[in-house]
Amino acid sequence: MDLRLDGKVALVTGGSKGIGREIATAYAESGAKVMITSRKADACELAASEIGNGCEWFASNVGYEDQVESLVDHTLDTFGAVDILVNNAGANPYAGPTIDVDVPRWNKTIQVNMTAPLVLTQLCWNKYMKESMGGCSIINISSVGGLTTNEQLGVYDVAKAGLIHLTKQLAAELGPKVRVNCIAPGLIKTDFAKILWDGERGAEVAASYPMGRLGETSDIAGCATWLAAETGSWITGQTIVMDGGGLIAFKKDTE
Fold first, then answer.
1. Active site residues
2. CA distance 142 to 148
């Protein structure tokens, strides 16, 4: 199936590497005009040049509202629209029991993973989508962690759970002009999650999945393209779990 995004403008946060870069690449190859952002200008510039197809970049930290507004304004000035928003940028500054987290790291986790997608959605809605002809799409990248519990990543998972519910809430509010959906990946082979998949540990996790492998960034990009294209035109408020069957796998007896 040839999924096309011709005539669309896409803004992808965390677009210089990993899942975000793969989504930006897929969108550009499908005919969209793409703006990527991440904190480091050199990483953005390199990624945009390698993505090609007219991909543009703007360095920003999505945790700061003024920088996010400049990002949206720059996208509108450059392309004249924001038809597709992918809230992919994430942060995980704390690992350990949730009961022990300090407030600064709690706040940063919530700010980047949940507040930033809300602010970006507000800006895109108020500056363009609300007055558009419709057909806009917002895709939030959550995590399967938002659907379960974890001894070490509970704070991150709480933020991702909030993003899942925020997706449903905004989908109810912004239709029919804007569809809002969510992708919840399992363990994907990215630098962000390298500690979880590198070496023997990754092989053990892969073996526990019904699909027998870890996820690739291309898996997520394919779903994000399908959701943004006409193929997803009657889908909103949904969270698509992409975890190779990890959540439904039979649990091995560890005793």
1. 156
2. 12
